[in-house]
Structures are given as C-alpha cells and as structure tokens.
User: Fold this.
Amino acid sequence: MKRSKLLLTGLIVVAIVAFFASGLQHQFTLANFKAQQAHFSELNHTHPVVTAGVFFILYVLVTALSLPGAAIMTLVGGALFGLLEGFLLVSFASSLGATLAFLASRFLLKDWVQSRFGERLKAINQGVEKEGGFYLFTLRLVPAFPFFVINLVMGLTPIKPFTFYWVSQLGMLAGTFVYVNAGTQLGEINTLAGVVSPGLLASFALLGLFPLIAKKALDQLKKAKVYKGFKKPKTFDRNLVVIGAGSAGLVTSYIAAAVRAKVTLVEKHRMGGDCLNTGCVPSKALIRSARFLSQIENAKSLGIRDATATFAFSEVMERVQRVVKTVEPHDSIARYTELGVDVRVGSARIVSPWAVEIEAPDGTRETLTTRNITIATGARPFVPNIPGIEHTGYYTSDTIWELREQPETLLVLGAGPIGCELAQAFSRLESKVVQIQQGDRIMPREDQEVSQYVLERFQAEGIQVLLNSEVVRFALEGDQKVAFVQTNGSSQMQKIEFDTLLVAVGRAANLTGFGLEELGIETGKTVITNEYLQTKYPNIFAAGDVAGPYQFTHTAAHQAWYAAVNGLFGQFKRFKADYSVIPWATFTDPEVARVGLNEQEAIAQGIAHEVTRYGLDDLDRAIADEAAHGWVKVLTPPGSDRILGATIVGDHAGDLIAEFVLAMRHGLGLNKILGTIHIYPTWTEANKYAAGVWKKANAPETVLKWVERFHRWQRKSK
Ligand SMILES: Cc1cc2nc3c(=O)[nH]c(=O)nc-3n(C[C@H](O)[C@H](O)[C@H](O)COP(=O)(O)OP(=O)(O)OC[C@H]3O[C@@H](n4cnc5c(N)ncnc54)[C@H](O)[C@@H]3O)c2cc1C
Assistant:
C-alpha cells in the first residue's frame, strides 16, 4: 500500500478509535442534547458565529468519518439555529462531509475493488457512468437509505466527485428540511423514530419514486418525438419483420414463430447468409481437406513410411460446395416455412418505423405493416482502395469459393482469423502463399505468444508472412500481376508476383440502401443500438454482424434472442444483451480458442490476475495423437479459482474451450473442473490438468505443514 494511503487509513482509524474510546458516542443522544439545550442556546446567543462554525465542522467530521450521530445533529441544528440557518448549515455540512467520505473511500478502496471485481462490476460501472447521478438522486431523496453507506459505496464507482456533491446536496434537501424543521420542536421529540411518522415516510418513498416516474414520462416524450411525423397504423400485418436470413435473422424469426408471433423473414440473396454460403461452412470444409493433405505430409511421424495423395483442386472446391448443399436444408425456405415463418425472397426496405417494403425479384412490391422490425443485414468484406487493384482483380471471402483453378501464388491481404484460416488452407493445398499484414503480428486480438506460435507454424509450412507491411499499389506487367509492398515504412519497395489475390482485411456492416438513412437511424461502423439492441426507434432492433460488436455466428444467434424477445415482449420486460462470456475460435492449425480475458487485455485493463498454464506436450492423448504441442492458459484473480478467461492453443481447442465457457457462464471455478471426472485418455483432460496446476500453485502451505507433522507423528506413534 502506498504511504499516502497508509497515512490516511491511520488517521481515519485513530479518529474513529478516539471517538469511541472517549465515549463521545454517548454524547450524541437525543436525551443528552435535550438536557443541554439551554446551555447550547446560551452559547449560540453569545457567540453565534463560533457556535455555528463549530457545529458545521463537527457535522462535517461526523459525516466524513461515517460516525453515528448525523441525524441527531440535524435535529440539533434546527433546535439551535432555527429553520433557515439550521437548514443551510446542515445542508452544506452534510454534503461536504458526504463528499469527503466518498473521496476517502475512492482513494483507499476503489482501485482495489475495481481490479479485483472489475469484470463483474462492468455492468454496474457502465450504468453508473451513464445514469449514476440519476440513481444517486433517487437514493438521496429517501432518507431510509443509510447515508454513510451511499457515500462509501458511491466512492467505489466511476461517478464524478462534483456530480456526487451537487446531486447529494440537491437530493437531500427535502429530508434535511423535514429533520431540521422537526429539530425546531426538539422538546416534543422523544425518539429519532418519532421525527418521521409512517405517513411522512410514505411521502418520502413517493418522492423517491417521483424521479423514476418522471424518467418514464420523459422516455415516453422522447419516444413520441422520435416517431413524430410518422403515422402509426391502426392495425399491423405482422408482429415482426426480419430483414436478412443469415444467422441473426434466422434465429430471430425462429424464436418469433416458436412463440406464435406472425413473422416475415426477407432475404434478398441466399438463405443462410454468410455463414452457410461463404463463411463458416465452406471455410471449415476447405480446412478439412487441407488438413488431410497436411496429415499425409506428416505421415512419417505416425510411423507410416510412405503416404502420398494426389488431388484436383477443382474437386476439393466442388466438395466444399457439396458440404454447403448438404447443410443448406437446415436454413432453407421449406424448413422455416414449416416452422411457421413467412419467408419472402426479395429486397427489404424500411419505409416507416412500422412498415417494410419488399421488392420481389420480378420487381413487384408489397408493403407490410409491423409492430417490430429486426435489422439483420450482416456485413460484407471490406476492400481497400489500393491503386491498381481494379486491374489485377481480387477475390474476397464472398467470391473465393468460385475458384476452380488452383492459384499458383496466392497473395493474402490481412492476417485476422479469415486471412489466417484461408492462407494456411491454400498453402496446404499446395499454392504458394504470401500473406501481408499491416500490423506487427498475425491474429492481433490474441496474446503475443499465440501470434508468434501460429506465425512460426505458418513459416514452417512455407507461408511467407510479411509483417508491418502494406501493398502500396498493384500493377500488371505484361500478363504478370505484381504487388509493390512497403515494409516498416521503408522507401525500398518489394515486388511480389502473384496470380490470385485474396483480400481479407475486415468486414464492413451492411448499412445502406434499405431505409436507415431516410429514417435517420444512427450508424457508426455498425447500427447503433442500446443494450436492448433497440435503435433510436424502440421497435426497430439490430442483431448480428450489422449490430456488432462481435462478428460470429454464435454471437449473432445470441443477439437474435434479445432482439426477438425484447421486440415481442418488451412492454412487460426487456433484457440487456449479455456479452460477459463470449467464446470464439480460429480454425488454423494450431487451433486457437478463447473465452473471456487474455493476458494482454487483463494488463491493459489493470485487472489483477494470476496465469496458470498447462502444456499439451504433457497430455497422454496429445502424445499418442502425435500432436503434443500448444497449451491451456487460464487467468484467475490472485488467490481465487474464479475463471477470468482461458486461451487454448492446439488440436481441438475450439471444442476444449466449451468447458471453460460453461464454467464461466455458471460461475464454476477451477476447483469444480478439477473435481470433475474426465475420461482417460481424452483431450478434455487438459482442462482438468490446467486446474490441477492452479491448485498446486495455490496449495495451503501452512495447513500442509501441519498435515506433514501429523503424518510424522502417526509414523512415530504406536
Ligand atoms: C470466411 C469466413 C469464415 C467465418 N468463419 C466463422 C466461424 O468459423 N465461426 C463463426 O462463428 N463465424 C464465422 N464467420 C462469421 C459469420 O459468418 C458471421 O458472423 C455471420 O454469418 C453473421 O450473421 P448475420 O446474420 O449477422 O449476417 P449474414 O450472414 O451476412 O446475413 C445477412 C443477410 O442479410 C441479407 N440482406 C442484406 N440486406 C438485405 C435487404 N435489404 N433485404 C433482404 N435481405 C438483405 C443478406 O443477403 C444476407 O443473407 C466467418 C465469416 C467468414 C466470411
């Protein structure tokens, strides 16, 4: 602990101990003040300024140190100084004292509390940052909430000190007035409880409710303002219209149909969206074929002397399409129609907050009125405007699946998950791959050591990775496509020849051309929503890639639930989208999976943590599978088995992470994982062994020393 903190803690402790040791708490009683009222009045009469000054300072001290007696002093204020002066003195002294207590709590405890429980407090912190003043105001209005507890707890939150001060003063005015006024008749009061009758308490409670009611009314007003200029239909054709039949749209409409809402799902291109047609499914199918070739390549390590494979690139790509076709029925019009969803093929456009126009492929238009709309229009590959790119041409994750001719040299721009998965797959399919990454490492969201580890594997497999590099321009030299690449800002340009270009530098949300601009729905990189996934029109929601902040199929499906339920049942209860436990995986070899915090995030956010690591080179099953590489890394708060996050690098990482996801979601710690039977010999044992490493590092040494003594004694005794 810092010296200044130690000093302040010492001072506070000494003051509190002195207060109780000197028996001052017995002076702060109603009977005592009443007995001495004449004496104090005399003092005030002869030395009014000094008496008021001493009273003020004493009041500030009592409240700043959270000592008992503030309520009695308020009454005394009324009795001694009368209603107006007493009210002013108490109002300022109590607010000042409260702010000092708040500041002390913040100085001594906030960092510790936030670093220890920061992850859990995230939602509270965000709420306080946004509406802390409002909540403090309602708490202050009702004197039933303990004054000193509010001061100390608020000090641990991110609310600004000045906001705390003025909101406290304003909020306490009514209560202060009632108490000071009661103090003017101190003679008639026998107990503190007598000051506030049940009727008065009820009035305070109503007063406390007032801001909440006012806020609701204000929300209604705001809502009315947003919808101004639009005519709300008297009846609606649908409960919900969903735009886009990708992961988010499919799940939203599925849920709506399941709860018997009348729902229309509009898709302008292909049912299943990116994931089925150009994303997860084809990429994983391609990776499977590529992995097989890699295994053949490494056959010797399995004791197989000679294994070879011949393949035709076009057949591999045809297989990918076969896989897509096989999965297609899961997302088909037939299936969703059977589930009760009215599926429309066409382009949707929001024409009012309650109406969506659908233009069918034959050009016919129909407008459906609806109570709610969910925008689930997804994202598309972002293509940077690099000079010459129009001459060389390019593929993206949308179009690469059309390739039937094997690229001789594939140039991959970008080293995020999509760039990395495809770079390795094509390299294993025997294309020469050059990967260009602007930043200083691949997969930059993961820990540095993960990026390095995967990079080394890529390099060992023959992928040429250029870090800190960017293509300045593309050109055609005769028939040859070339890229001019600048590395580390050097003026020396590297010329790279290629025949196929894959652009994988990120994905941009689909925000234009379907009514958002006309309705003034706010957008940044994605559609801007509140925690309930509502846009500025409370009946229009967004989910999936178009809403962010994640771009995964499972997060799109997760958000879909909130969009559907908040839309259909929001008048009864709304749910805030919960992003506390979000897992993901990158399906490179080695696979990388993560849930919660990694080390670089914990450090950046100042979250105290302990790192536990288990190397997969130790795992029996990994050794048997000739895949003994990678690790399980778990972050926990120091001395606690609570899981803050886990990263797994190695075979089956995407499957193994599930146990940590479950544990985090349901608050299970590493002790619970350790106490669970895992089948031998499986990869899942790695999770248990990681928990074992944590347990060993956190063994209760003192207890164990006593246990050792006990055993020694047992050996000696008869
Ligand atoms: C190569 C690649 C690999 C990936 N791998 C994984 C993975 O392994 N795991 C994972 O979780 N995620 C993966 N993803 C991400 C995943 O595909 C997306 O996060 C997911 O598809 C998002 O779903 P969505 O419903 O938000 O959008 P989309 O799937 O893009 O669906 C949006 C739909 O809306 C339609 N639409 C748009 N505008 C209109 C309109 N005006 N009218 C009617 N219809 C409209 C579009 O045609 C589209 O079908 C991958 C992505 C790519 C590109």
